[in-house]
């Protein structure tokens, strides 16, 4: 077993390789060097001297597997494992990488210049990577995984008759999987958490025992690329708090057409996740499937061509599907600001019956096969729905650019969603740009929208501005004719929100609000008042 500690002698051949490689000058300070011939990193043997904050460097070359076990960093100082000098290739074994019985570990394939994926796992007869054995507080980035028999990344510790990974004994915390590339997998791209949230019976000592799987608390899955997954692109279950799925690009999911395994993103049983800013295109399954506990927010996602290549008549394949499994009574789902184009069947198929306060609001649903919604337990609010395809609404539909043209129906027509308080779009641009937020995932930033009229009259509301020139105070006077949630914001001429002046619910009547403007630069600003789905705006010139 050849493992080289940086404080010890490095064989002369390896030293020459290090010195001749132009990337050597950027090599991190390595506490331990792992040659290509070595597949184990074990905190009980060859890595026993590793301390929190240390860096383990993987030297370039091909290996059959990488087993990382019994390594422990700390919250402030994780142990970092990174490729150095060149690329690491892992292939032709029954698994690729296994992170087992570890805590506070960061595995990174970003150790070579600007290359995004310096560790490559391919052609394995199992999962590309597993995070198991009661591991917790794990970060993985910069890994490419392809051609696996099972999922690309498998992340959970299934309960067994040792009873160490049951819900009462163990919680996986703070898992971050980001900036990875997963493609051509036999099963899911990511399989995170147990899908048997309510438990699974196993036989222990001749007795059938119902075991509850562990929970995941603190999960961030973001900026990953998925292509041609056999089953779901990305599955998350039993993640009941602090869960976010965002910025992922998923194409051609569910290629094997395995029933009940067909979604771009599935938030499975026991999940409470925010799912936003994802792009899901050309998959055979549902774009997003929600089976969570309730309280899931799904927004700013692009879903295009969901299920269009699935040739069987049933089951239906929809833009968004919300099921009725294990939801918390009274909890609700918010589905807002999504752009759903050309789903094979429904734009949304909503089946949850035990939740309440569910909303489908400010979404674009276009060119759907069977309608917009099934179910009676959800409010459809201010969505732009069109049974046919209108390419003229988008900047360049033929090239997959679903950004809105300034003349699109969805521009400046969104209603407020107070519980979301959304200030960015799928491209992380500011919302709103001009008057109001736009319907759908994209906020049009065309400069022509800055030619804002001085005011838009609505007889149901009134809005006036007075200035006390003895002080730096503006007096905002407004009226509402019915009980409404009122928002008043101050914007500069680029559409940037400078200050939230009012954000509250008001009964019918007249009101006033003092605004201190002493900290603002001179120039022209816009006050905009939104009351329900009505709005009015006024320009004001601020000068000394």
Structural description of this entry:
This protein has 544 residues and is mainly beta. The chain has a domain of 91 residues: Immunoglobulin-like (Sandwich), CATH 2.60.40.2360. Helix content is 2%, strand content 43%. It is globular.
| Portion of residues within helices | under 10%
Largest sheet: 14 strands, mixed
CATH superfamily descriptor of the domain at 452-542: Intracellular proteinase inhibitor BsuPI
Shape: globular
Let me know the average pLDDT.
Answer: 89
Per DSSP, the total helix count is 1
Number of strands: 48
- Alpha-beta content class: mainly beta
Proportion of residues in β-strands: 35-45%
Which fold name corresponds to the CATH topology of the domain at 452-542?
Answer: Immunoglobulin-like
CATH class of the domain at 452-542: Mainly Beta
CATH architecture of the domain at 452-542: Sandwich
Tell me the strand order in the biggest sheet: 1-2-4-7-10-13-16-21-24-27-30-33-36-38
Oligomerization status of the protein chains = single chain
Q: Please give the alpha-carbon distance between the first and last residues.
A: 77 Å
Radius of gyration: 27 Å
- Unreliable runs, pLDDT <50, ≥5 residues? 1-25
Helix-strand blueprint:
Layout: E1 4-5, H1 12-20, E2 32-34, E3 40-42, E4 55-58, E5 61-63, E6 66-69, E7 79-83, E8 88-91, E9 97-100, E10 103-108, E11 119-124, E12 129-132, E13 136-141, E14 143-148, E15 153-155, E16 171-178, E17 181-185, E18 190-192, E19 200-204, E20 207-211, E21 215-222, E22 225-229, E23 234-236, E24 239-246, E25 249-251, E26 263-267, E27 273-276, E28 279-281, E29 286-290, E30 297-299, E31 302-304, E32 320-322, E33 334-336, E34 339-341, E35 348-350, E36 358-361, E37 364-366, E38 378-381, E39 384-386, E40 394-396, E41 401-404, E42 461-468, E43 473-480, E44 484-492, E45 497-506, E46 509-516, E47 523-531, E48 534-542
Parallel strand pairs: 2-4, 3-6, 4-7, 5-8, 6-9, 7-10, 8-11, 9-12, 10-13, 11-14, 12-15, 13-16, 14-17, 15-18, 16-21, 17-22, 18-23, 21-24, 22-25, 23-26, 24-27, 25-28, 26-29, 27-30, 28-31, 29-32, 30-33, 31-34, 32-35, 33-36, 34-37, 36-38, 37-39
Antiparallel strand pairs: 1-2, 19-20, 40-41, 42-43, 43-46, 44-45, 44-47, 47-48
